UniProtKB/TrEMBL annotation:
NCBIfam families: DREG-2, HAD-SF-IA-v1. Pfam families: Hydrolase (PF00702). InterPro entries: HAD-like_hydrolase_domain (IPR051828), HAD-like_sf (IPR036412), HAD-SF_hydro_IA (IPR006439), HAD-SF_hydro_IA_REG-2-like (IPR011949), HAD-SF_hydro_IA_REG-2-like_cap (IPR044924), HAD_sf (IPR023214). One of its GO terms (cellular component) is nucleus. This is Rhythmically expressed gene 2 protein. Transmembrane segments: none annotated. It comes from the Eukaryota. PANTHER family: HALOACID DEHALOGENASE-LIKE HYDROLASE DOMAIN-CONTAINING PROTEIN 3, PTHR46191. Signal peptide: none annotated. The lineage of its organism: Eukaryota, Metazoa, Ecdysozoa, Arthropoda, Hexapoda.
Amino acid sequence: MISLRVHRVVQRVAAHSRNNFMCTSSSHLCSQSNSQSSSYSSRLDLENVKLITFDVTGTLLAFRKPPFDIYMDFGKKYGVTCERDLIKASFKAQWKQLNAEQPHYGKCWEAWWTEIVMRTFKEANAQGANDATLRKVASSLIEHFKTDECWMLTEGAKELMNALSNVKNNGVAIGIISNFDPRLHQLLKTFKMDSQFNPVILSHEHQVSKPSKGIFNLALASYPKTMSGMSIKPSEALHVGDNYELDYVGAVKAGWKSCLITPNLNINEIPETRRISQLPKIFEDLRAFHNFLADQ
């Protein structure tokens, strides 16, 4: 069971914001019909949890503006222009295609992202999109996407990290499982979170991505043995993310506990073949998850 000492650390930090806690249960998942936030849940049992891992994109960190808008901004700096709707559609299509051709950001992540940039602008019929210019755009974008000019902490992330800063001294490890390339290490340093997480499992570095069971097994194998002097079982781990298929379904199928951080989940938009019967615990943001921990 999460130790009383861990409970008290989290409880003290969260006490001032408990009134904001929103986590209600429902017998089914549905989409929000208005701006009022809701939580649809099954019971989330934290008994015997020894490892909590977090997704990054959309969970701990968020883009300051959509990636395709950033592409447009950087393209304009080099004289490459196109319509917003075209580059938005092209970015999504090229991401999906290259991810299928070269999963886990390929063998060389810089080359993978350069290819994404070049394909995105070319397929969007951008003006001025010659190879030499697009390589310059790609180089600038690759650098930009590892800075806090591109990223920001999500709602409640700072408070949660403060509350969990001493958890590793109380028998619970805090880690990351993310479909990301090595730039995440720099981002964690930039946001002063690099010392908070161990293990940090990145899809590119291990050439396996969520929702594969393999990436969750890697996290278990990397669990710091000094925490308890022994390895842990999947049922003793909790994964927190924002994507139903990648985070929740992936974790549950790997035998883990899991919950989602998202203000809106429309289960009807997910193909039935990709759903599982077990309902997720859903929190509006990390602050709500933080408060939930405080009440355990």
